[in-house]
Amino acid sequence: MRRLSRIAVAGAATAALALSVSACGSSSTSSSSSAKSGKSKGIGLAYDIGGKGDQSFNDAAFAGLEKADKAFGYTSSDVEPQEGETDADKVQRLEQLAKSGYNPVIGVGFVYAPAIKEVAAKYPKVTFGIIDDEQDKAANVSDMVFHEEQASYLSGVAAAKATKKNHIGFVGGVDIPLIHKFEAGYVQGAKSVNPKIKIEKQYLTQTPQEGGFASPDKGKAAADGQIDAGADVIYAAAGLSGQGVIQSANAHKVWAIGVDSDQYKQDALSKYKDSILTSATKDVAGAVYNLAKSVHDGKPKTGVVRASLATGGVGLADSNPVFKNNADLQAALKKAEAGIKDGSITVKTS
């Protein structure tokens, strides 16, 4: 039976991970030998802010880990972040995963960029992956990035078709370039349907450390305000905070558009699912699994690996029958998707 270690307090990462290695039936010595020999125990996954259970970004990464474990017989390890942690904490976490025989070692989120750069240089025989960042250019680093703006454009088309008030909203978790891509695509897509549509916009925080990706209460407050202003469809690109946006939409009987994962199908959001029109998805699970497979096959995929609408790496979920069976909306989406794929529509990123 596969046993998966999860470390709740990142400040104790070294000791806790050593114990988890023993729990999996290996001593720390044999784990080090495993790392030196190049034989992988599995994926070492370090979560982004919000951690496992966000029903979005982090959970999608975990789904990729589970798929790899099942396919390759791995005993992977996933590690939680700590509130207020430093880059040094991240370095320690990644180093311990590499030392313990995990390969690839993946940082879930751009906040891992400095730590990945430092640790990858120390462990050149281990493949490192980082999701949503392409700053680190090294022979053993895979930069797993996405055309989020393309899925967001489709979300904007869907919102403009679904609104009854010609008034929609956008909630971004943190005011950073990555989330600007979501906003830019959404606004452009909505205005392609109705140039005069009114769009509310709000970012929850200026930095990730302030909780923009991890505070459902902040998301709910922002959505409440936008709904009070008249918006009846709200798209959230805010990680765990997006759960608050969905809760608000459900309470006010308007539409929410989810992000990263198909949030209509998430168990933790099941009581709100009738308010989730669709979700702008990006295949984080596929990115994690594909990197693990490439390492398993002895041909690690490194460099920039970018997923798009054309590759199937981003898109819109169609689990909600109301969304799927809306012929006018689906026709508009089909036309927009074709335009993006053939290049006749260039989606903005800012």
Question: What number is the mean pLDDT?
Answer: 88
Shape type: globular
Strand order of the largest sheet: 2-1-3-4-5-11
Helicity level, as a percent range? 40-55%
Throw out a few tags for this protein:
about 350 residues, alpha/beta, 6-stranded parallel β-sheet, 6-stranded mixed β-sheet, 12 helices, 12 strands, about 45% helix, globular, disordered N terminus
Care to describe what's here?
With 350 residues, the protein is an alpha/beta fold. Helix content is 43%, strand content 17%. It contains twelve helices and twelve strands. The strands form two sheets. It has a six-stranded parallel sheet, sandwiched between helices. Strand 8, helix 9 (242-252) and strand 9 form a beta-alpha-beta unit. Helix 1 (13-23) packs parallel to helix 4, helix 3 runs parallel beside helix 10 and helix 4 runs parallel beside helix 5. The longest helix has 17 residues, at 177-193. Residues 1-38 have low confidence and may be disordered.
Layout of secondary structure:
Blueprint: H1 13-23, H2 28-37, E1 44-46, H3 57-72, E2 77-79, H4 87-99, E3 105-107, H5 113-122, E4 128-131, E5 141-146, H6 148-162, E6 167-174, H7 177-193, E7 198-205, H8 216-228, E8 233-237, H9 242-252, E9 255-260, E10 276-282, H10 284-296, E11 303-307, E12 314-316, H11 321-324, H12 327-342
Parallel strand pairs: 1-2, 1-3, 3-4, 4-5, 5-11, 6-7, 6-8, 8-9, 9-10
Antiparallel strand pairs: 10-12
